[in-house]
Amino acid sequence: AAKSLGQGHLQYYNAHLQVRPSRLLVQDRLLREAVANDQGLVLHFQPLWNLATNRLEGFEALVRWQHPQRGLLPPAEFIGFAEARGLISLVDRWVMRAACKQLRAWRNAGLPPVVVAVNMSATEFNQRTLVEEVQLVLADTGIDPQWLEIELTETTLMKQSEHVLQTLQALRQLGVRLSIDDFGTGYSSLAYLKRYPLDKIKIDRSFVKDTPQDADDVSLIQAIIQMGRSLNLRTVAEGVETKAQWDMLQAMHCDLIQGYYLARPMAAEEALRWQQHRCQMSAPQ
Ligand code: C2E
Ligand code: MG
Ligand code: MG
Ligand code: MG
User: Where does the record place the EAL domain (predicted)?
Assistant: First the structure.
């Protein structure tokens, strides 16, 4: 049985080897073209709500790939691939520029200023030219640095390199905001909360998911919010799906909320209408 299983595995492996390289190359070329031609990648925008002011704080820009054969792909379907193929910097840079362009378009349309948050991979964060690129994008789009936020992961901050510290300081110096995404899921070290000039902690959805029923998760979230407050870091709860979660987080004085309960990520036009509607309702200008 072991032998036939081994053979089966070998066959599968061979078939895989024969098929995979060309498919990979095709995907690789398609993704490069999408970035180069500014065609194929799209951003969806999910609101971040400020609980203290009861106003819209801004949006997280989430990338999707309008794939010629496979339809609209979520990041889970291609970010890993882009990382493996060395294309993630191209994607992250496209996203940062596109997000700032969208912000510019909304401002030109007369909307009140909002923050836009972009996700950044460790690879892109470690590029020598990152700070210059950020400055260039802001200058080209005429966006003040305070409206751009960069979401980093614990993986990025884990490497205690001088370069990471210097880059964070340079970005902070510019006025760009910095947040830790998916907080609590990686190799969390509380030391970096103190060492690095960060603005926000985004509490991962996995801790929010089972609240308010799960007492341990409730305690964990409470502890993160309190820690954030004492370190002067704002806290964002991700993946808020119910009114009960919203009310709980508000009672805990969590600073910001993101999740389906408020809104799903939306295409740019829908996000524009959503802003117009919401701003009229709760923040008359
Ligand atoms: P993330 O940065 O933690 O983004 C939040 C994800 O949670 C988004 O998934 C969003 O649609 C989803 N989400 C938000 N609210 C809820 C909710 O209430 N319930 C549930 N079940 N899900 C919710 P999405 O858009 O599929 O993105 C997945 C991940 O892909 C992101 O997680 C981020 O790590 C990565 N990603 C997205 N855009 C980029 C990018 O431009 N560059 C890089 N490097 N990574 C990106
Ligand atoms: Mg994020
Ligand atoms: Mg997140
Ligand atoms: Mg998350």
Answer: 24-279
